[in-house]
Write a structure and sequence with these properties.
three-stranded antiparallel β-sheet, 12 strands, Aspartate Aminotransferase, domain 2, globular, seven-stranded mixed β-sheet, alpha/beta, 2 domains, Aspartate Aminotransferase, domain 1
Length: 391
Amino acid sequence: MENSFRQFWTLDPEVTFINHGSYGACTKVVQARQQELREEMEREPVRFMGHRTTMFDQARASLAAFLGAEADDLALVPNATHGVNAVIRSQRWQAGDEVLVTDHEYNACRNALDFAAQRWGAKVVVAKIPFPLENPQQVVDALLAAVTSRTVFCLVDHITSPTALVMPLEHILPALQKRGIKVLVDGAHAPGQIALNMKALDPDYYTGNLHKWVCAAKGSAILYVRQELQEGIHPAVISHGYNASTASRSRFLQEFDWTGTFDLTAWATIPVVLDSMAAMLEGGWPAIMAHNRALALEARDYLCSAWEQTATAPDSMVGSMSTIMVPNDIIKRIEERGVNLYSELNHQWGIQVPVIPLPAPLGTAVRISAQLYNTMDDYHKLATAILSLRA
């Protein structure tokens, strides 16, 4: 099946790429714009670095409209892990405090939570989310069941990394906040995959990558912090902004906008990527998200049917990714042969897809992604590859 959108990316034509969720992929337009900016930077580095505030403000203005936020509430960070660390390491917990997280949290961010909790003598409480899921209320119930009078903070995904679940934040956030619990949303996969409106969602803190589903350059992400909480949040690297003048800019922006010398061009390309991606489909970003979600659901249903599996989550908890269980007899068969499933798919079939070993007795899953450059042929090939391993 021909796909006219693939021409806009530089992906290897020999690879069936259904793993957009891991690192995203830049379009040719964004790569070209970033190269122009890098050449400009190297022609006159001092002048280029001196214009960083203007570039950042332009990026924030574009992102504010895209994310439904005030521009001054958005800090630019290299990735969501930086955002998570900035918030968590700015907290001041007391011995005996409890901080809540789910068992679906991304390992890097869970490590940041464990590190800070150990530092302050707080206890990390893990809410066990049922999987597979029948309805989103199971997530809310599991989180609230883990809350006690000592719970002061919660780290929760918007879209889980290993299991691709769109969490019901519209119910989770108010339920926790009314109990006085501060909530940091790890939205690493959310921008560009699902519609966001920070004003309506109203999290305490929210961080999300732009290099994934927005298709921005690597090294671009956002950290949203409620205005009344910004004074207490500092970047992972303390630099000049800590004592810079706040006559024209908030301390929050002063600190995050300059944490040392680095390549600023990923952030500077944000207006270009938002506009150029939106132009690919009539209807812009809402149409892109709807297209990708429809393809992810169609692919999930096809793979479930081909492998005689059931869906791991209801449709309402699916964005542009989905996790499908691999038949247990196939996993057993390849283990007996000493075959690594990821390597077999990647090296023998040219398929790039994450293989997720889940805790026993769940088994092994694959997490598919759906982006404009994908077609159902990609998932047909995956289905055939997996079934061939029965032989």
